[in-house]
Amino acid sequence: MKTGCERGHLSKAIWGATVCGCFAVLLVASGCQKASAPAVDPKASEQAVKDADVAWSKAAEGHDLINVLAYYAGDAVVMPAHEAMLTNKADMLKSWTALLDKNNSISWKPVWVESAKSGDLVYVVGTYMRTMKVGKGKPVTDRGKYLEVWKKQDDGTWKVEADTWNSDLALPGAKRS
Predict the structure, then answer these.
(1) Residues 57, 59, 63, 66: what is their CA dihedral angle, to the nearest 10 degrees?
(2) Which of 101, 104, 143, 176 is most exposed, with minimal Cβ within 10 Å?
């Protein structure tokens, strides 16, 4: 029969071995995990998105509908001024087809570009200008601001997840406060 002292000594030895064993398992398991993703430089992300936004505007200026739509992620949400929220490619196609009509011109430029600390999300705030030829009258020019949220995709490309814009001009007949 073991004395109380011997039982306590044995319990401490088992406890120590258990703790050491668990620690060893954790060390081995952490070594077997997938290597963490390389750190993303937020400034590089900002520049990549700024460059993409400028290229996107050039595609719109060139009335390149297919290329314009290619900047949206598959699950993008578009919230155009004076329209319902668009959540599918068919509705985006319809909206952009009207925006890129041969009688219209549109362009935009980023003003602020900022990345999340993780570098995988970037938001862009900018200004746009749109000119529309309505009938035989004088062209109408609209100007306003926009907000985009870009996300780095698994393949390394940047796509727009959320896009919205609205005019700086009052609607015809509306009073400004």
Answers:
(1) -120
(2) 176
Strand 72-79 and strand 158-167: pairing?
parallel
Any idea which residue has 């219209």 for tokens?
Answer: 104
Neighbours of 74 (CB within 10 A): 9
Largest CA distance in the chain: 109
- Count CA atoms within 13 Å of residue 92 on its CB side: 24
- Contact status, residue 151 vs residue 121, Cβ threshold 8 Å: yes
Q: Is the dihedral of CA 139, 144, 149, 155 positive or negative?
A: positive
Sign of the C-alpha dihedral computed for residues 158, 159, 161 and 164 taken in this order:
positive
Reduce the secondary structure of 96-154 to three states and give it as a string: HHHHCCCCEEEEEEEEEEEECCCCCEEEEEEEEEEEECCCCCCCEEEEEEEEEEEEECC
The neighbouring-strand residues paired with 141 are 131
Q: Which residues contact 115 (CB under 8 A, 6 or more apart)?
A: 42, 43, 45, 46, 49, 121, 122
Rg, the chain, Cα only: 28
Give the bridge partners for 152, in sequence order. 158
- pLDDT tens for each residue of 36-84: 555 679 999 999 999 999 999 999 999 999 999 999 999 999 999 989 9
Q: Which residue from 133, 81, 126 is spatially nearest to 108, judged by alpha carbons?
A: 126
